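Moderator note: this is an archived Q&A kept for reference. The question asked for a predicted structure of one protein chain; the sequence and the answer are reproduced below.
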Amino acid sequence: MRTMTLIQAITEAMDEELARDPHVFITGEDVGPRGGVFRATMGLYEKYGAERVVDSPLAELSIVAVGIGAALSGLRPICEIQFADFIFPAFNQIISEAAKIYYRSDSQWNVPMVIRAPYGGGISGGLYHSQSVEAFFAHVPGLKIVIPSTPADAKGLLKSAVRDPNPVMFFEPKKGYRAIKGEVPDGDYTTPIGPSRLAREGRDVSVYAYGMMAHYAEIAAEIVHRSDGIQAEVVDLRTLLPIDKEAILRSFQKTGKALIVHEDNLTLGYGAEVAAILASDGFAYMDAPVMRLTGPDVPGVPFAHTLQEFYMPNPDKIAQAIRELAAY
């Protein structure tokens, strides 16, 4: 085991996959000599050359379209969108092409591509560098949606995504790039796409989260355990599509109380699907209303630090929500 940051684990995963499979290549804005705006591809251009780490024009539509064509031609592209906020020009290519080719061809064609994008707030990026976009894509059959919260999962899930035969959207919580550290296994390993991770066992309240919020939920669970004796169970969803219904219900059966946390807007956010699963399939276990703690329904994360803090869930807010739910 080695301790590394989230961004280091992502870089190492791409490095190992480039070395393992000559069909893998990376393309995106500034991924070459600069190493990406967050330095996720730092050193890879020098190691693998301009044909494997390809700087693209400032055109997200073309980044994804080139990736689709390359994937159909037998390559395995990793397409980086510099910020998730800029993914929308490529929306049609992702939704109408990449997600549907396997189905529309009756499994004759595969699209083995990964679309990486840093998402979420917390870095004072303002409206156009802070959006959470996962709910848009989690609605689409044919895609897999992955959001890690630990370095070990970031590496293992990204390697699984590169090897997957069809498109994977890999969203990375950019606030956690260097803030989240953890142990990563040595050697070549993968983490399966689909199963959630039981981040912390408990008996009083189930907390469901992903990305930076899963990291915060673990901190909050420790806070309430020390201060109130509450044992909160934390389920890191980590794969939003396909969703791990069995794990969601297994935890709910144990605790009877559910708190769903994400930083995206409340209305029609991803947490609504988790709440629906709990209400329809877990009603018999329910001891309290399902609670959601999310970002507010405003157009974007504010730039001002004070307003950003008001917008974002954090460990203290999650801890308080756990206390309120446990008191039912």
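Archived answer notes: The radius of gyration is 19 Å.
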